[in-house]
Amino acid sequence: DELISQIAAGEVVERPASVVRELVDNALDAGATQITLRLSAGGVRLITVEDDGGGIPHEELPVALRRHATSKITNLDDLETVATMGFRGEALAAIASVSEMSLLSRPAHQASAFLLDARSGELRPAARSTGTTVEVKELFFSTPARRKFLKTDATELAHCIESVRRHALARPDVGFAIWHEGKLVEQWRATFVPGQGDPQDAHDALARRLSDVLGEDFVTQSVAVQHRVGPVTVTGRAGLPDAARSRPDHQYCYVNGRFVRDKVLTHAARSAYEDVLHGHKQPIYALYVEIDPARVDVNVHPTKIEVRFRDSREVHQAVRHAVENALAAPRA
Ligand code: ADP
Ligand code: MG
Predict the structure, then answer these.
(1) Average pLDDT of the segment spanning 164-185
(2) Which atom of ligand 1 is nearest to the CA of 87?
(3) Topology, domain 2-188
(4) Which of 20, 50, 198, 308 lies at a CB distance of 3.0 to 4.6 Å from 297, suitable for a disulfide?
(5) Which ligand is nearest to the CA of 68?
């Protein structure tokens, strides 16, 4: 069973950044408003993710580590409409099988926190405010073949930061901080509380987050995308040629709040750049596609980075027109 878990882990956990992605997903699913990461040796030696979300009741801590344990779906129909980031119940089990993991958590109603050591199964009271801290030590310590494929600490750290960046660009209402070897390396403050304020506030919050994460020049050298075709809404910002100089190769696409890598979306955006700016290479953009969840399948790949659209032509056209309109609009 250990071996099966370790093999399954290979699908989910490739490197420290994959652990970061899964743990931040979980923190966001738990309703966190502040997420703090502490890394050591590029995340290979240590990754801790602290959140102020809803926490895990102490009797559920051992369950959270079990394979296919998820609190997020109860039947197959839920797969159609699932709005949370995770839903397979695989991540914690997979990570625990290739590291030394512990969970420290306290739901608001519980008098104290509890700490679960994944390896020994020991569960004991501990101190913590409401929320969860997941600690992952010595990634791949028992699978040296995997560990060998890791790159330098600096490269692994860069991948970890990129993983958080992808989340951060979708959630300006959540604060993120990343520490490495005791030094604060990135900090993006929350600027927007959902359910309060108007759409303009949401728009400003996103612009602020884009500026914090991708650089001020990206916001000044980009145009707003705002377009709706049938069931597909596309928002975000598309960089003008100069914006790409500071950060080439940064294309961020989101579908219903999830970061995705998708050929339909990148092809649509590239076509728009080719049409309007005549072959502008490596554009930089952040595009947010909102679509009826029934028209997109997010259950394609364990890492959830890939999606399949029911009607990819519909999405392609929407994104292409959205970016074309934005780039072609007269600018002040
Ligand atoms: P999934 O996210 O697909 O449900 P995971 O293995 O990532 O599966 O997590 C298992 C379960 O552990 C989750 O369903 C959730 O109930 C709980 N959990 C994990 N991380 C957190 C967290 N940071 N805060 C609250 N609950 C969590
Ligand atoms: Mg998860």
Answers:
(1) 97
(2) 3
(3) Heat Shock Protein 90 (3.30.565)
(4) 308
(5) 1
